Amino acid sequence: MDRRQQKTRDAVFKALSSLLEKKRFSNITVQEIIDEANIGRSTFYAHFDTKDELLKAMCTDIFSHVFSDELMSEETHDFSGNNNGLESKLTHILYHLKDNEKNIVGILSCESGELFMKYFKEYLSEMFSQYLSQYLNGVKMKAPADFVINHLVGSFAETVKWWIDNRMKYTPEETARYYIEVSFIDRIIPDQYVLNSTNKK
Amino acid sequence: MDRRQQKTRDAVFKALSSLLEKKRFSNITVQEIIDEANIGRSTFYAHFDTKDELLKAMCTDIFSHVFSDELMSEETHDFSGNNNGLESKLTHILYHLKDNEKNIVGILSCESGELFMKYFKEYLSEMFSQYLSQYLNGVKMKAPADFVINHLVGSFAETVKWWIDNRMKYTPEETARYYIEVSFIDRIIPDQYVLNSTNKK
DNA sequence: TATGTTACCGAACATATTGTTCGTAATTAT
DNA sequence: ATAATTACGAACAATATGTTCGGTAACATA
After folding, report:
1. Which of A69, A183, B69, B100 is most buried by its number of CB atoms within 10 A?
2. For residue B177, which of B80, B58, B112 has the smallest C-alpha distance?
3. Pairwise CA distance, residues B20 & B107, whole Å
4. CA B14, C1' D26: Å apart?
């Protein structure tokens, strides 16, 4: 990619991020973004068709780092704790989010976080579905499977939002622990399963 | 309130509700609302300063019915189940939401639900805080109290969204049951507490 | 029924935002 | 060096916002 393109793209992301700290997304004008990023009007529209596309691109950019290929794979080598690696996966996500702290805080603050959360949940949903598929059949619950997934995704997203709203004053490990503590994950992935895990085919 | 005012207000709410079924809130213009409601331009602005104020008024209107005074009080006479009336409270909320189904489905559909959810959570948060204040001190958990409240509120809100997205095909009782099933409420309000509840001062 | 009040109408207006076009200048890759 | 790509910025049409105001209709009260 041309350096100029990358430079423009970065400037726009940074500008939007900065503006989001002060006002909500829908009340930010393209002109403000242009001024803040210090680029030409036509340049903006050469990069993004609309303001919405810009936000989408920005979220996609962030999540491509947060949800790395490694993370999305079912193979995890950390089985510490009694939830078969899930907790370490979540901790991992939180660390990556912290790396992007400057951008994300802007997006989430000032009542504009809903759009970010929407995209975030899409990624989380895929991760949880893939990860839990091996367990869900064996669990006896009244609630439908999609409800269970939705619940786990939604409440982890809420956890992240709470964490960021609290300026990340808790460590990723603590935060992931809190989530596991209030979730019912121990009823889906019982300790027993971990003990027998070496015997699974 | 003047009948004309009420009539105009209703027409605007109905119009917005209808438009929200087709497109997201931020892409709806005041002109479209005016045309759909069949009112004069100046009339709209006499009622609402901005489009945002309109949505807020509409949500407040709905929630004033859903979160009735009776519901918000700590005194509940239904202690069936082992969660000291919480489940029946939630079921109650779901029934009221179903009464407003026509309006709510419009608000929640087409990627515009986030704003509704925001206001919804504010009400839920107050309810849960008030309701759980008597229990939280006695529970031994690592997670901070505000995290716990946030988790319960967020995941119930997610439950409601899931329920509505599924066209309310489950009954309020079933849905509340699913929520209680995946929550950790039984660790906050143990059965034992209910048995002793007649002895509390 | 008469009267004062209030709400609605709708056209017109200034202002602001959006998204496009195009000729020119600067930067980049080879 | 040079050809291709990108950024610039002014100008533009189209659309949306929020206000003003004179006239009309509906309301409450007596």
Report:
1. A183
2. B80
3. 6
4. 22
Q: Which residue is it, tokens 């064996």?
A: A138
Which tokens hold the place of A137? 């059949």
The one-digit pLDDT tens for each residue of chain B (201 residues) are 899 999 999 999 999 999 988 888 888 999 999 999 999 999 999 999 999 999 999 999 999 889 977 777 766 556 566 676 889 999 999 999 999 888 888 888 666 677 788 889 999 999 999 888 878 777 778 899 999 999 999 999 999 999 999 999 999 999 999 999 999 887 776 554 433 333 332
Among B59, B158, B168, which would you mutate to test the A interface (most chain A Cβ atoms within 10 Å of its Cβ)?
Answer: B158
**Cα–Cα dist A136/A151, whole Å:** 14
How many Å is the Cα radius of gyration of chain B? 20
Dig out the tokens for B2 from the structure. Answer: 């003047």
Contacts by B34-42, CB closer than 8 A, 24 or more apart: B37/B8, B37/B11, B37/B12, B38/B11, B39/B8, B39/B11, B39/B12
* Alpha helices for chain A (secondary structure H): 3-20, 30-37, 41-47, 51-66, 69-72, 86-99, 101-108, 113-136, 145-165, 172-182, 185-188, 191-195
Strand D–CB B53 distance below 7 A: no
- SS3 letters across A134-164: HHHCCCCCCCCHHHHHHHHHHHHHHHHHHHH
Least Cα distance to A122 among B111, B150, B159, B120 occurs for: B111
Strand, coil or helix: B68: coil
